[in-house]
Structures are given as structure tokens and as C-alpha cells.
What we know:
By secondary structure, the protein is mainly alpha-helical. It has a single domain (12-116), classed as Winged helix-like DNA-binding domain superfamily/Winged helix DNA-binding domain (Arc Repressor Mutant, subunit A, Orthogonal Bundle). Helix content is 65%, strand content 12%. It has five helices and three strands, in the order H-H-E-H-H-E-E-H. It has helices spanning 4-23, 28-38, 43-54, 60-72, 97-116; strands at residues 41-42, 76-81, 90-95. It has a three-stranded antiparallel beta sheet with strand order 1-3-2.
Amino acid sequence: MFHSDSWQSEDDTMAYDRLVRKTTRENLWLHILSTLEEKPRYGYELRNEIRRRFGFESGEVTAYVVTYALKRDGYVTVTNEMPSTRGPSRKYYSLTSSGRALLEKARSYLKDLSERL
């Protein structure tokens, strides 16, 4: 038997899930820039911090693809550093002034949107 309340609830859940996906995984660049605002980070550390702060797991390949695109577009720089203990060098990603400006523009937009909602 069809029950309208259960259909509505499922529909609401799907809409909410879509909103969460669009504001997290599909806009990973925003979370990367925000995380790099604190300090430079290497890839693994960046993904862990996004999971800790924002509560979602980004795909490893996706995170690197987005970070490389941010580098290509001048929002992030990369430096190679040797860790203090033995091991391979790591690529540390840092926010550029253009990256900070883009992050502030995005925050302003989201704040304005939130207030209008």
C-alpha cells in the first residue's frame, strides 16, 4: 500500500543527500582552499584534515586532480620538502593570494545565500 508520508520522507532524503553531495564532494576545491588557509599541507594530511573538519571522505585521486587544477589556475603552490626523519620528500600545498581571494569570494557568496534562504 502506498503511503504518502513515506514517499515524501524518501523524496526529502534524496533532495537533502543531493544538497550535501553538491556542497561537499562536488565542490571539493572550496574545502581544500579552506584547509590550506591554516597552513601548508601534503596530500594525505590534506585529505585527513578535510575528513576531520568537514565530515566527508574525498577520493584520493579526486583530491589530487582538484589540487592540481587549483595549482594550474594559480590558487595553490607546491613545494617539495624532506621530512625531518628519513623518508621520501613530500609535496606541500600552500594557498596563494589569488587562492585567498577566491576563498573569500566563495565565503561571501555562501553567507549571502544562507541569509537569503
